[in-house]
Amino acid sequence: MRLTMAGLETPQREARLLLAHILETEATALALNGDRDVSIDEAGRFAEAVERREAHEPFAYITGRRDFWTLELEVSPATLIPRPDTETLVEMVLKIAGHPSAPINIVDLGTGTGAILLALLSELPRAEGFGVDVSDGALEIARRNALRAGLGNRARFGISSWWSHVNGTFDLIVSNPPYIPSREIAGLDADVRDFEPHLALDGGPDGLGAYRAILSGAAARLSENGVVVVEVGAGQAGDVAAMMRASSLPFTAIRADLGGHERVVAGARSAQALRDAAHFPVGRTRETD
């Protein structure tokens, strides 16, 4: 009843999932064993979890976990919660990257939980990566996620405001930067507006500030056949592609997510570097002029 009154779309499902989390079991197992006794401690923790969700705190922050790609990631209020739409970026990169056994050097700008970098490393066994963020709290989460996934030997993390503390060249530059225009933050759902870090949401007056920072140094840090791949917000793909072309990355491609929204933009110095971008089997990709 409390979750229904809070206006949640699937209150009964969420209540079951919260109880399953507290009881450290699967929701399906809970349904099959509905007569299981609940201790006083478990009942108290369940009531606390319901109260937090009633206040629209994201489910992932209550459980401290979020599935992304094939990984279970730790999350906290210091990190943006990974979304399924971001998997579109991972899919596009894997297609562009070619043979999975190729050695690839990756930098993930604004890594947060490390979701993008760790998903790529899990699929590219000879790849190594460097994830940077301005948040110490986020980097601690990312390091723990790397260890949990068995990728700690191939993933490094460090403090950096975009390129400020990043040296060397990379085969892949990836990022899911903040891209929501500042004026739109107040209108976001309470789950996002009141709980997720604004630093990871606010893209400045036009939502494109982070892309300017990323692209200001991207071309100089790309290997000869390197590729930049970024997630974008609604209606931003064309602008970001144009920014790439103005930043010495004349060949670009745009990738839509499964909802048909243009979600990912890739840029490179050569068409060959994007050779597989237009042949991706799910959703659609278009090369840009």
Protein architecture, described:
This protein has 289 residues and is of the alpha/beta class. It has eleven helices and ten strands. Strands 5-4-3-6-7-9-8-10 form an eight-stranded mixed β-sheet, with helices on both faces. It starts with a helix and ends with a strand.
Name its key features.
two-stranded antiparallel sheet, 289 residues, 2 domains, single chain
Task: Give me a quick take on this structure.
The protein has helices at residues 2-5, 11-22, 27-32, 40-54, 59-63, 87-97, 115-123, 136-148, 190-193, 209-218, 237-245; strands at residues 65-68, 71-74, 105-109, 128-133, 155-159, 170-175, 222-231, 251-256, 262-268, 284-287. By secondary structure, it is α/β, with parallel strands linked by helices. The protein folds into 2 domains: 2-55, no CATH class; 77-287, Rossmann fold (3-Layer(aba) Sandwich), CATH 3.40.50.
SSE diagram, text form:
Blueprint: H1 2-5, H2 11-22, H3 27-32, H4 40-54, H5 59-63, E1 65-68, E2 71-74, H6 87-97, E3 105-109, H7 115-123, E4 128-133, H8 136-148, E5 155-159, E6 170-175, H9 190-193, H10 209-218, E7 222-231, H11 237-245, E8 251-256, E9 262-268, E10 284-287
Parallel strand pairs: 3-4, 3-6, 4-5, 6-7
Antiparallel strand pairs: 1-2, 7-9, 8-9, 8-10
